[in-house]
User: What shape does this take?
Amino acid sequence: MSKYNRRDFSKLIILGGIGYTIWSCANDKKEQKGNTTEEDTTPKMPELLPDHIKIYEKADAAYQELAVRFNKRIQQAPTFIAQCFSTEGVVAAMKFAIFKDVKVVVKSGGHSFEGFSSTNNGLVIDVSAMKKMQWNNDHSIMVETGCVLKELYDELLPKQRILPSGSCATVGISGLTLGGGYGFFSRKYGLTCDSLEAITLVDGNGNIHEEIGKSAILKACKGGGNGNFGVITKMEFRTYQAPKYFQAFRCKSYKLDTKRAKNLLKTWFELAETLPKSSFSAFVLNGKTLTILITNYDERAEADVLKVYNALKKISNKGTIGSKRALPTALKTFYGVQHPLYFKNACAGLYKDFSEIEGCIDDVIEKVISTSGLIYQVNTVGGNVNTKSLEKRSVFPHRGLPFWSELQSYWEKPTQEERLVTAFQEIQQRFYDHGIRKHYRNYPDINFKDWQTAYYGKYLPELQQIKQQLDPDNRIQHPQSITV
Ligand SMILES: Cc1cc2nc3c(=O)[nH]c(=O)nc-3n(C[C@H](O)[C@H](O)[C@H](O)COP(=O)(O)OP(=O)(O)OC[C@H]3O[C@@H](n4cnc5c(N)ncnc54)[C@H](O)[C@@H]3O)c2cc1C
Assistant: This one.
C-alpha cells in the first residue's frame, strides 16, 4: 500500500501523536470538456474532520491500542485504522477506503472468535468510540454501535429495563445483535436482533441508509449483518421491564467417564425441554468436570425449575441453590474475563434434541474428557425465539433448534495451542461427519466447510441480494463475509 503522496494530500496536516487528520484534499470540481460537463467518477479524497474521524497507521501510538482484539491467537496488522466518532466519520472512512482502493472490515467490541474485525493490509472502520445512548421514550433506546454490553446494562438496569442479550461485559452490542444474539432472557423475549427496530447504516459506497419497519435491509441486519454489507452506526432497541430478581442453580459432577457424562447429557436434554421460558440452562463439560447451570427470574415458574434442578441434583455429585439477587448484582457475576485471551471457540452445532447427536456423542465426550482444557457446552435457547412473527422480520434460520452448542478452549502460552486446536478440530470433524451442519453466525469457525448455508440457511439468496445492492464492489469483506 502506497503512502500518502503530495498530489493526493496537498493539504495533509499531521497532528503529532493523534495520527493523520486531513482537512481538505481533493479537487471536488466537475471536469470541464468543451461545452459539456462530465461527472468525474475518479474517487476523491474525502474531507476527514477530526471531530468525526481519525486515521492511524502502524507508527502511531493510537494504532497499537486500537489494533488489540479480544482473541490473542489472531494477530493482524491493518494498513489503516479509521477511528470514527459519528456516522459522518464512517462515511468519510468508507470514502477513504475507496480512494485508497483497500478492503474494509468493521470493528466494534472486537470479540469476533476468528478475528473478523481485523485484517492484514486493509482498513479497519472502528466504531468503538461511538457510545452515545438516548432514550426515545420509556421503553425504546437509541444506542451507538460502539457500546459494549456492560455499558448498555449500566444504562438500562437503573431504569428497570432489560434487553435479551449476552452476558459477557465487553462484547459489543452491535456485533452480537447483527449475528442474532442470545442470553438469559431470550427464551422469553427472543434474540437480541428481534428487539432491533431501526438502524443507521453506511453502505460500501459511503451512502447513509435509515432503515425501519419492514425494510429488507433492516431484516438482513437481524442475523446477517456482521461485516457483510455496511457499517451500522446506530441501533434502536425496544426494551422490557426488568425482573425483580435473578437466581442461579448449579449441579456439579466430577471425575466423569464417557458413559456417565453421556447419561448426564441425555437426562439434561430431556429435563431442559421442560424448563419454563424464564429459565436458561447450560451443560458445561470441562474435561472430566461437569457444571450444569440453571437460571430463573420468575417466581411463578420456580416450582418447575426446582423440579428440574432436584432431578439433576440426584444424579450429580453436588447441587447449590444461589440466593435471589437483584438483577444488576446477579448479572455482574456472569461478566467474565474482560481482558484479551488466547482462545479457540466455535459453534459445535444447533440441535433439535439429543437424538441428533446420539450417534457421535461418545466420541465427542471421550475426546473432551481426555483433553484437559477443552470445554463442550450446550445452551438452551428455544422458547419464544421460535416465533413465526419474529422469524418473518429477521434472517435467523435456526429458530426451531432450541439447543445451541459450542466448543471452547483457552490457554496461556502460544505453545499450548497446537494440542488443543488439534483436538478441537477432531471434534468438529466428528460432528460434521455425523451431519451436524447448522451453526450460529456469532460463533464462527474458520474451518467450517459450508459456512454460508450453515449460518444463513434459506436466507442466503436474500442476503446475497442485499450485498449486491449495498456493496457491489465487495469493499467490505472478511474471510466469511457474504459473497455474491
Ligand atoms: C467472551 C465472549 C462471550 C460471548 N458471549 C455471547 C453471548 O452471551 N451471547 C451471544 O449471542 N454471543 C456471545 N458471544 C459472541 C459474540 O456475539 C460475537 O463474538 C460478536 O460478533 C462480537 O461482537 P463484537 O462487536 O464484540 O466483535 P467485533 O469483533 O468487533 O465484531 C464481530 C463481527 O461483527 C461485525 N461488526 C461489528 N460491529 C459492526 C457494525 N457496527 N456494523 C457492521 N458489522 C459490525 C464485525 O465486522 C465482525 O465481523 C461471546 C463472545 C465472546 C468472545
In short: The two ends are 26 Å apart (CA to CA).
